[in-house]
Amino acid sequence: MENQTVNLAVSDLIMLQSIVQVSCERGAFRAEEMSQIGQCYDRLSAWLTQMQPTPETPQQPEEPKGE
Questions:
Q1: How far apart are CA 13 and CA 17, in angstroms?
Q2: pLDDT digits (tens, 9 = 90+) for 13-63
Q3: Does residue 1 register a pLDDT over 70?
Q4: Nearest-CA neighbor of 22 among 41, 50, 44?
Q5: Axis crossing angle, helix 10-25 with helix 34-51, rounded to the nearest 10
Q6: How far apart (Å, rounded) are the C-alpha atoms in residues 55 and 36?
Q7: For residue 21, what pLDDT is reported?
Q8: What is the pTM of this model?
Q9: Residue 53: helix, strand or coil by DSSP?
Q10: How far are the Cα atoms of 3, 10, 25, 54, 67 from residue 38, in angstroms, in the given order?
């Protein structure tokens, strides 16, 4: 593979998170591997949570002040 720029999107990491979940459910990992996989999964999940946009609260229009 030549020197090509590789783009990685948040959606790719969400897919990776799903792959780890399914793999664990199907018993794809040995018991001695689960600790490391769990730590990596936890860090990935925390990062993905941080990357989610925060919902903006709609601002209420200011009421006209009485003169």
A1: 6
A2: 999 999 999 999 999 999 999 999 999 999 999 999 998 887 776 666 666
A3: no
A4: 41
A5: 150
A6: 33
A7: 95
A8: 0.67
A9: coil
A10: 32, 19, 13, 26, 63
Q: How far, in Å, CA of 63 to CA of 38, rounded?
A: 52
Alpha helices in the chain (DSSP H): 10-25, 34-51
Residue 65 has pLDDT above 80, yes or no: no
Coil, helix or strand at residue 55: coil
What's 8's DSSP letter?
A: -
Say how far apart CA 47 and CA 32 lie, in whole Å. Answer: 25
Structure tokens given for 13: 């990491």
State the residue for tokens 């090509």.
Answer: 4
**Taking CA 56 as the corner, what is the angle to CA 9 and CA 7, rounded to the nearest 5 degrees?**
10
pLDDT greater than 60 at residue 67 = no
Q: Look-up: residue for tokens 């209420």?
A: 60
Which two three-digit tokens encode residue 10? 């948040």
